[in-house]
From TrEMBL:
Ranges for domain SIS: 124-261
TM region(s), chain numbering: 133-151
Coiled coil residues, start to end: none
Pfam families: HTH_6, SIS
Boundaries of every HTH rpiR-type domain copy: 3-79
Lineage: Bacteria, Bacillati, Bacillota, Bacilli, Lactobacillales
Species assigned in the record: Fundicoccus culcitae
Keywords annotated in UniProt: DNA-binding, Membrane, Transcription, Transcription regulation, Transmembrane, Transmembrane helix
Domain of life: Bacteria
Protein name: MurR/RpiR family transcriptional regulator
Record-linked InterPro entries: Homeodomain-like_sf, HTH_RpiR, RpiR-like, RpiR-like_SIS, SIS_dom, SIS_dom_sf, WH-like_DNA-bd_sf
Length: 285
């Protein structure tokens, strides 16, 4: 598992049930202390059953509480978990929110430098380069990020498509082939267009790459490759937008990589990189 236990909890936090959130919040606020706690002690302190704590750690991907504590002790201490709410409570002004938000985004960026699974990212890069064509799918805010990436990719190739609603999903999904790569972008991992396109991709034998903000959601679970940036913010709105910043950085990096690779290796023979007058015109714009 690549992500530290604390950042893993932060990525799950908005989607946890009431009891799970109670456990998560206590661990976040007492991260140093829980390393020396037995499960019986933690259970008494937060008034939650030991079985609930065990299930919570298993949900994060650990075998149980003991393995979770070992991972906590081994992970670097992350002191960047100041909540956005705490930073703006005393001064609810736009200037203070902006300063607080900038600080927290920088903290999230620092965490992602060490926490992102770069091996997985390199695999995604290889998959994209080997694709016959790429279908980008997203909805609402994630869809706007996908569309921005699509427009950039269109300066390189015509063999990239963008889908953001159920109707287009059915039209495009039915034509998917084995050589296609579906890039599903969904913070929550529950986007209907993404899930429907993934089903079509699985039927066609196409490859699914996802960009999502939490582990163990429907999109993540059905992906062949998944990139999961994390946020150190707890305030839901601020967390959502800060993760969106990471999504944008990752997608922009994908575009820069593919564009640079194409220029360096002159891949005009590859299906994904067929140069056309249309693409030349797009670059000039």
């Amino acid at each position: 598992m690549n992500s530290s236990p604390l950042n893993l909890i932060m990525s799950y936090l908005p989607y946890l049930k009431k009891t799970e959130k109670k456990i998560a919040n206590y661990i976040i606020q007492n991260y140093e202390a829980i390393i020396d706690m037995k499960i019986t002690e933690l259970s008494e302190k937060i008034e939650v059953s030991q079985s609930s704590i065990t299930r919570f750690t298993q949900k994060l991907g650990y075998d149980g509480y003991k393995n979770f504590i070992i991972a906590c002790a081994a992970a670097p201490r992350n002191k960047n978990t100041t909540t956005f709410d705490e930073m703006v409570t005393d001064d609810l002004s736009l200037s203070n929110i902006l300063k607080s938000y900038e600080i927290n985004v920088l903290k999230s960026l620092e965490s992602n430098i060490t926490e992102l699974n770069y091996d997985e990212i390199d695999k995604v890069a290889k998959v994209l380069l080997e694709a016959d064509y790429v279908v980008i799918v997203g909805a609402v805010f994630s869809g706007s990020l996908g569309y921005n990436f699509y427009l950039k990719m269109r300066t390189i190739t015509r063999n990239v498509y963008y889908v953001d609603d159920t109707f287009e999903t059915h039209l495009t999904g039915k034509t998917l082939t084995k050589g296609a790569v579906v890039l599903a972008i969904s913070q929550t991992g529950t986007s209907e267009p993404c899930l429907e396109m993934i089903n079509y991709a699985k039927s066609a034998g196409a490859t699914v790459v996802s960009l999502t903000a939490s582990y163990n959601n429907p999109v993540y679970n059905q992906s062949d490759y998944a990139i999961v940036p994390i946020s150190t913010l707890q305030h839901f709105g601020a967390k959502y937008v800060s993760t969106e910043v990471m999504f944008k950085i990752i997608l922009d990096s994908m575009y820069i990589y593919i564009d640079t690779y194409y220029e360096k290796h002159s891949l005009s023979h590859h299906p994904l990189f067929k140069a056309t007058n249309f693409e030349s015109e797009d670059r000039e714009k």
